[in-house]
């Protein structure tokens, strides 16, 4: 194998793999522009003519709720979930990773053990609690638990990162008179930026794509998210609305793609510097 082949072979393999990975997105975009009679019958990737009315119908929304309001509801829930997870999980992780208190190892082991619990196991008692509080059919059941460090996976992720940070910085801060909370906020939190950004990215994507939990707690159409609207779209218009449904799917995917690419830059930058500055 000559030098030119060795140089271009990895790039060729990467390009082919990229095309395979991007094909579902290309298919989704192409299908969203197909006429109704070609969505389920034609095997061609590109439509015979572009049906822009699919996007017009999708923008009208469902049940009298426009796609702008649907996206706003989803963004509110996802944004609240990101803020809650980043703050509460990082605070809990700081306590486990940097503070010494009684039964800390037992509590950490118990927290890690909750990772094995399926989400559906805790959903019923959570629903009973929120129902008695009168918070069902509101955004609170989808946002409030995130501020209570209920996501053990992210707590564990941030704990593992904080344990690798040098303790000399915290000792210097303690000598300067900083307490635990001030040290957490001014020293540890900025250094843990890669783990926090990773938490934010996955929280946003998982919350944005969530369907089951939102279906359990949200009843009124004006409170629907874009995920619930997609299911309602099919139920209302049946097979004749596959084109608008795929068009709304494209609209729902765009914020996720933009969010990932915007924050991925900060993630790579933070990991390149190991989270340390100066």
Automatic annotation (TrEMBL):
InterPro entries: MetI-like (IPR000515), MetI-like_sf (IPR035906). Coiled coil: none annotated. Pfam families: BPD_transp_1. Keywords: Cell membrane, Membrane, Sugar transport, Transmembrane, Transmembrane helix, Transport. It is a multi-pass membrane protein. Signal peptide: none annotated. The keyword Cell membrane applies. Gene3D superfamilies: MetI-like. Residues 71-263 form the ABC transmembrane type-1 domain. It is found in: Cell membrane. The chain crosses the membrane at residues 12-30, 75-96, 108-130, 142-162, 183-208, 241-263. Belongs to the binding-protein-dependent transport system permease family. PANTHER family: ABC TRANSPORTER PERMEASE PROTEIN MG189-RELATED-RELATED (PTHR43744), ABC TRANSPORTER PERMEASE PROTEIN YESQ-RELATED (PTHR43744:SF6). This is Multiple sugar transport system permease protein. It comes from Streptomyces demainii. The lineage of its organism: Bacteria, Bacillati, Actinomycetota, Actinomycetes, Kitasatosporales.
């Amino acid at each position: 194998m000559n030098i030119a082949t060795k140089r271009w072979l990895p790039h060729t393999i990467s390009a082919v793999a990229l095309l395979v990975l991007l094909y579902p997105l290309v298919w989704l975009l192409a299908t969203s522009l197909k006429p109704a009679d070609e969505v389920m019958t034609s095997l061609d990737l590109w439509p015979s003519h572009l049906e822009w009315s699919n996007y017009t119908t999708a923008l009208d929304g469902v049940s009298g709720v426009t796609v702008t309001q649907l996206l706003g509801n989803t963004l509110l829930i996802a944004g609240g979930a990101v803020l809650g997870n980043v703050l509460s999980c990082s605070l809990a992780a700081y306590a486990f990773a940097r503070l010494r208190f009684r039964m800390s190892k037992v509590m950490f082991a118990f927290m890690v053990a909750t990772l094995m619990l399926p989400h559906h196991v805790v959903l019923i008692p959570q629903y009973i609690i929120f129902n008695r509080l009168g918070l069902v059919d509101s955004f609170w059941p989808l946002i409030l638990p995130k501020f209570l460090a209920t996501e053990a996976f992210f707590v564990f992720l941030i704990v593992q990162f904080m344990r690798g940070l040098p303790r000399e910085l915290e000792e210097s801060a303690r000598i300067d008179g900083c307490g635990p909370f001030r040290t957490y906020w001014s020293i540890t939190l900025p250094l843990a930026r890669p783990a926090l950004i990773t938490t934010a990215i996955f929280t946003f994507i998982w919350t944005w794509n969530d369907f089951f939990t939102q279906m359990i707690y949200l009843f009124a159409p004006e409170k629907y998210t874009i995920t619930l609207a997609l299911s309602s779209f099919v139920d209302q218009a049946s097979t004749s609305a596959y084109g608008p449904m795929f068009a709304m799917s494209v609209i729902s995917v765009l914020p996720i793609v933009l969010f990932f690419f915007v924050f991925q830059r900060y993630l790579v930058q933070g990991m390149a510097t190991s989270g340390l500055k100066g």
